[in-house]
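debug: dumping io for the single-chain case to check the tokenizer round-trip. Nothing else runs in this session.
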Amino acid sequence: MPAFSQGLEKALHQALTFANERHHEYATLEHLLLALIDDTEAAAVMRACNVDLDELKHTVLTYIDTELDNLV
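debug: decoded output
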């Protein structure tokens, strides 16, 4: 099995932390996206693609808190 980069491992752990903070049983792609928004390198790539990170973070958090509340 290929090893994950240190950055990817950190993002995966952060996604699990976000899920655990919300008492979600699973970490989803939305949790991972939230973690990547906070990752320096991933955020730089998103900014280079003209992504408004504040708006994206707000949208993802709203989605997680309203649509994924049944992951408890």
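debug: round-trip ok. The mean pLDDT is 93.
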